[in-house]
Amino acid sequence: MEQLLGSVVDKSLEAVLRKLESGKKLGSEDLVILMIGMFRESNKRIDETNKRIDSVFESLSKSIEAVNARMDVLFETVNNRVNEVKKDMDARFEAVNNRMNVMNDALNNRINELGNTLNNRINETNKRIDDLSKRIETMNDTLNNRINETNKRIDQLYDLLGKIYETLIERAPRQRDK
Predict the structure, then answer these.
(1) Is the pLDDT of residue 177 over 70?
(2) Looking at the 3D structure of the chain, how many domains does it have?
(3) Cα–Cα distance, 45 to 11 (Å, whole number)
(4) For a pLDDT cut of 90, what percent of the chain falls above it?
(5) What does the pLDDT look like over 97-146, one tens digit per residue?
(6) Tens of pLDDT, residues 38-61
(7) Domain that holds residue 170
(8) 117 and 148 both lie in a single domain
(9) Contact, 13 vs 24, CB < 8 A?
């Protein structure tokens, strides 16, 4: 039906164009035919434009799909790389933590050894101090005993001197008398 209508419009347009070429005056029917022809031509151009738009849209859609596919691949690649780096970092952190734990244990052992050595030296020094205190106490006791003996001797000498003095005093009047 559309083809039939199209061919009728084409023939009518040819007739109107012949009238225009011959310089005849156009009637309202002729103007309507010209308008229909213009509309038909506009519709053809619109249809062609729509086809080009559809073609561009389809091409653009394919390009967008290709870009999306490429982005998906890139995202997957980046995610895989990030996961690899994360695993590597986790392994390195674990290695550093293990090394720190080993160093911490070694330092604690060294501190404990130094503490034990220091405690042994302190105990040894305390023992020496105790031995020295005993020796000083023994020497002090010995010295006190000697001082006490010396005091006893001094007391004995004092008593003896007192007796000698008394004897001398008793003899002195006698010798004066003689």
Answers:
(1) no
(2) 2
(3) 20
(4) 67
(5) 999 999 999 999 999 999 999 999 999 999 999 999 999 999 999 999 99
(6) 888 898 999 999 999 999 999 999
(7) 143-178
(8) no
(9) no
Q: Which residue has the tokens 């390195």?
A: 92
Q: At residue 23, what are phi and psi to the nearest 5 degrees?
A: 85, 10
- Per-residue confidence at 19, pLDDT binned at 50, 70, 90? confident
Other C-beta atoms lying within 10 Å of the C-beta of residue 26: 13
Looking at the whole model, is its pTM more than 0.85?
Answer: no
Do 30 and 108 reside in the same domain of the chain? Answer: yes
- Tell me, yes or no, whether 36 and 78 share the same domain: yes
Q: Is 130 helix (H, G, I), strand (E, B) or coil?
A: helix
The Cα–Cα gap between 94 and 100 comes to: 10
The token pair at 146 is 């000697």
Distance between CA atoms of residues 66 and 79, nearest Å? 20
Q: Position of tokens 């738009």? A: 53
DSSP letters, 31-96, are: HHHHHHHHHHHHHHHHHHHHHHHHHHHHHHHHHHHHHHHHHHHHHHHHHHHHHHHHHHHHHHHHHH
Question: Considering all CA atoms of the chain, what is the largest pairwise distance in Å, rounded to the nearest integer?
Answer: 212
